[in-house]
Amino acid sequence: MLTIGQKFPEFSKIAVTSLEKGKEFETITSEYLVNDDNVWTVMFWWPKDFTFVCPTEIAEFNKNFGEFRDRDTRLIGASTDSEFVHAAWRTHHDDLRDLKFPMLADTSKSLAENLGILEPNEKIAYRATFIVDPTGIIRWVSVNDLNVGRNVKEVLRVLDGLQTDELCPCNWEKGQETLTA
Question: Active-site residues (predicted)?
Fold first, then answer.
């Protein structure tokens, strides 16, 4: 699995970005992650569309979209399902209709494989979360087993800590003192 300090792999994938007819899909590439505007990226993966735990996580990321935006951070959700399955799921699930971030389709499973998060039996993605800095370097990785949802507040807490570029003690939260060496 790729880890902290490694470059996020190159990719070019179709994503669902809207439910408006004719504007549903966009291509997102790894170039989107690298920028001079100091914008970070959080890419989070789920195993399968039309399941039970996955929409709770996606909805929670969406509910916290403003928190990520306030931290100059882009959100990208992803799975190995197709863009058409993503669009159908968004259309038919109340909590997913108004997503403010793209749902990336890794139908070839190449990005999940390059990241090292492909479950070996079913060939679906684990619940992986990557925080990527504006230079395209992975700064944090968290992976959950298939049946346990992640904690979006913890992703925000770690993002806050990384963005201070300082020493942050255990249970540190934004606004608290950092450590001096």
Answer: 54
